[in-house]
Amino acid sequence: MTGRAAREDGPGRGAMPTYLGTPSFPDAARRAVSDARLRGNLAHATTTIRARRAEAVAELDDWAELREAGRQIKDHVLEHLGHYLRLLEEKVTGAGGTVHWARDAAEADRIVADLVKATGETEVVKVKSMATQEIGLNEFLAEEGITAYETDLAELIVQLGDDRPSHLLVPAVHRNRADIRDIFLRAMEDVPAGLTDSPAELAEAARRHLRAKFLSAKVAVSGVNFAVADTGTLVVVESEGNGRMCLTLPETLISVMGIEKIVPSRRDLEVFLQLLPRSSTAERMNPYTSMWTGVHPGDGPRNFHLVLLDNGRTATLADDVGRQALRCIRCSACLNVCPVYRRAGGHAYGSPYPGPIGAILSPQMRGVGSEVDASLPFASSLCGACYEVCPVAIDIPEVLVRLRARVVEDGPRRPLERVAMAAAGWTLRSPTRLALAQRAASSARRVVARGGRIRRLPGPLGAWTETRDAPAPPSESFRAWWARTGGREEDGG
Amino acid sequence: MSAREEILRRIERVESARGARRATGDGDVAAAYARIDRRYLRRHHGGAGDGGILDLFAARVADYRATVLRVRVSEVPGTLAERLAAGSGSYGVPSGLPAEWTSATRAALVRDPPVSSLDGLAGAVTGCAVAIAETGTIVLDHGADQGPRALSLVPDRHLIVVLAERVVADVPEALERLDPRRPLTFVSGPSATSDIELTRVEGVHGPRALEVLLVE
């Protein structure tokens, strides 16, 4: 494969869009936090889904056992990844599919573009897929003269709004119904006259807008939720039916999956089909799950291509602590409970993977060389809510602390911050030290804070406050507040 | 070096650097796989042959705002005729659908309609392979009584006849009954989205009306 910039023997580090001009997390987050409308939309959406997720999970007495099985299955696959990749390739090929391998984003983009061109088509319909977001596929296809139509409602809202995704599951979560109506009226050429902001009408408008596309499309591009190694079966989990349309109606289907998406056997789906819907949309089951194995004569696409994507996953695998991030099944429960995400929003994370999971995935897959990646491991209060809700028990705080150390060692050189962060890392690694430090800071507050802001920190830390005020430590620490209230609060914005 | 070799070599390098006990054959991997702790339940409700399973299934399907009608075998033709008469237009049916089910139907039926005609149909009538009580899910394996995947996708109404013996208590039992070499579609309620303010709205691209005849 002679992919654009495909490395012959790179370190296995990946590339994904660092959205152009992305500032470090603190800068981006400060801007987002001051946007009251964004904060209001996010607070509304995440508060609703959090409560419903808790109910859906509480309904199953064996949630802890399912979660443990999910963790072990994923760890087992990561431990024997080479074996399972070879097995999957053999089974998919045997069922009439074609398997392609891509070292990085550029190589995957090139493979997909060439496959589309080989069909003679210049349009593709797409099912929402994190993997294709990660490789910047739509942008690359556009450069190659191929138009990609997103068919998931939230992706459509993002695409029509010329916007960026801000949530794993609901990329347009930062938009409320009125925003969505405005975007449709502005950018949807066949928008119904008199469209209101009722969700049912908005959904109907999307249905009418995309129907002709589905019926005429010759090529579809999808992601993959699970790939069953011992049968070659691919699984896509969705709600709207746009996935079924794309997986069924076109002649050619191209699916892009990260190499960690494998489960060994069909039996393992009994675990993940229980864990995923309840964690992501708080449903007992999502409306539609499609499974296919290669090509099925007389039913669905005649050509099936599977692209296996590394793009930094093998580099992530190399870290004993960090590799657990590869268990992720993209449910987005960690976003919905994260106090930082709820206020900063998804755009501040500067990558297709926002929220707590993004804060540990992006810096591992891309490395910590950039400002934004170096700042992501600090975009957390280490409260642990993300770990609590993770259906595959990824200890996100543990990985964040690990990455903080790596940033201090390898990140962009800023001597003062290195010292401060090293101290912070030492403090944050121990709950006792953190509690002590917070209590000390709360006492100091009475001395140095004026009007809730600290104008100038003492000693070498003064350099930090030259360009910004440090917020005065609250009278109650975040950890204490979270422990007391579980995060229940009325968010003013 | 091909991308395939390169990626597999990267993985091997990680494995040897970790000092992991390298699996030398499929047997070792299989043994490790067998050690995975599966203490979760095979079913959350009901024992074998429990009639409560059907009640649970009906309630859980209805929770998705689908229509559930519980009928005896002899009532299937009449009920189906009534439901189809409520709409206007013709309905697609797979050629393997038992003929007696539609014997009382006056609405126009199209056997095995071509994909290009599906958008003009009022709905489709199919059977199913398995149904899951716990989650209110109906699974199609697109056999002779269900037709190809597009048939139950493109038309706006989907009527499914679910025989009691196809209903299992929970997800693990359902997967045991299914053949992974067939295309499979798991349907839990009508098409829906959570994309507007993370709140479920029924009716997007798939059928907006799901009507289930549970045959006891």
Notes on the protein architecture:
The complex is a heterodimer of chains A (493) and B (216). Chain A has 23 helices and twelve strands. Chain A is an alpha/beta fold and 493 residues long. In chain A, the strands form three sheets. Chain A has a six-stranded parallel β-sheet with strand order 1-10-7-4-2-3, sandwiched between helices. In chain A, strand 5 and strand 6 form a beta hairpin. Chain B has 216 residues and is α/β, with parallel strands linked by helices. Chain B folds into two domains: 32 residues, no CATH class; 164 residues, Rossmann fold, CATH 3.40.50. Chain B is globular, with a radius of gyration of 22 Å. The model of chain B has no long low-confidence stretch (mean pLDDT 93). Classes of the chains: A alpha/beta (493), B alpha/beta (216).
Strand order of the largest sheet of chain A: 1-10-7-4-2-3
User: Termini of chain A, distance in Å?
Assistant: 51 Å
- Return the CATH architecture of the largest domain in chain B: 3-Layer(aba) Sandwich
Largest interface: A-B, 103 and 75 residues
Question: What is the tally of beta strands of chain B?
Answer: 12
- Main beta sheet of chain A: 6 strands, parallel
What is the average of the pLDDT values of chain B? 93
CATH class value of the largest domain in chain B: Alpha Beta
Could you give the order of strands across the largest sheet of chain B?
A: 1-12-7-4-2-3
Number of helices of chain B: 5
Q: Number of helical runs of chain A?
A: 23
Protein name (chain B): Lactate utilization protein C
InterPro entries (chain B): FTHF_cligase-like_sf (IPR024185), LUD_dom (IPR003741), NagB/RpiA_transferase-like (IPR037171)
Domain LUD (chain B): 125-215
Pfam families (chain B): LUD_dom
Structure described in brief:
Chain B: It holds the Pfam family LUD_dom. Chain A has 493 residues and is of the alpha/beta class. Chain A has 23 helices and 12 strands.
How are the elements arranged and paired?
The complex is a heterodimer of chains A (493) and B (216).
Chain A: H1 25-33, H2 36-58, H3 63-79, H4 81-94, E1 98-102, H5 105-119, E2 123-126, H6 130-134, H7 137-143, E3 147-150, H8 153-160, H9 177-187, H10 199-216, E4 219-222, E5 226-228, E6 233-238, H11 242-248, E7 252-258, E8 262-263, H12 269-280, E9 288-293, E10 303-309, H13 313-317, H14 333-337, H15 339-344, H16 355-366, H17 371-375, H18 385-389, H19 396-410, H20 415-429, H21 431-448, E11 453-454, H22 462-466, E12 470-471, H23 478-485
Parallel strand pairs in A: 1-10, 2-3, 2-4, 4-7, 5-8, 7-10
Antiparallel strand pairs in A: 5-6, 6-9, 11-12
Chain B: H1 3-17, H2 26-34, H3 52-63, E1 67-71, H4 76-85, E2 91-93, E3 109-111, E4 123-126, E5 130-132, E6 137-140, E7 157-163, E8 167-168, H5 171-177, E9 184-187, E10 192-196, E11 199-202, E12 209-215
Parallel strand pairs in B: 1-12, 2-3, 2-4, 4-7, 5-8, 7-12
Antiparallel strand pairs in B: 5-6, 6-9, 10-11
